[in-house]
Amino acid sequence: MIKNIIFDMGGVLIDYNPEKTLYSLFDKETADILLKEIFRNPVWNDKDRGVIFPADIMEQKKSSIPADVYETVCGMVDNFYPYMPPFERMCELVKQLKKSGYGIYLLSNASSDFHERRSGIPALSYFDGVLISADYKLLKPEKEIYLALYEKFSLNPEECFFIDDVQKNIDGAIATGMDGHCYSHGDIEILKSALKEKGVKI
Fold first, then answer.
1. Are 152 and 129 in contact (CB under 8 A)?
2. Helices 88-99 and 188-197 sit at what angle, rounded to 10 degrees?
3. Which of the four pLDDT bands, split at 50, 70 and 90, describes residue 75?
4. What pTM was computed for the model?
């Protein structure tokens, strides 16, 4: 029986889409550079792992970033949350699940600044607990991060259902005994059906 619903953050609770953001703010050439050098670069994963900080990234990448946008990009790397609006329909689903008595938890690849930015994500007010990758120097889909979640909140993986927008992260969860669903933005009715198939009451 499912007793706990585990949510990813970017792409599930909030709209993390650096391509859309960058191409709307900069010309294509600049956006391509920023994606290659920072936002779709391994350095971003290192930030989420908690082994590098925004100032270090920008110092490391200074020669690769166009000078006319450097200060703007510094601000974005330091705090990308203003560019990630919450998904209102997902917040409503979280509220429904909480009202139905389910434990609600967050498991996200995110940097440590999450803790000072989380107030801008309304859905998180309904959560019973959060586990952020940077706090553990781990990343999904590494086995250890799922085990850390179970241990931190005394969860039985067989009683948990994980919602993430990346299939390999769902596969990682399944490998540790937790079922899940790979969510595509906008397919909330499909997600609800997947939850109901597992006996989750919405």
1. yes
2. 20
3. very high
4. 0.96
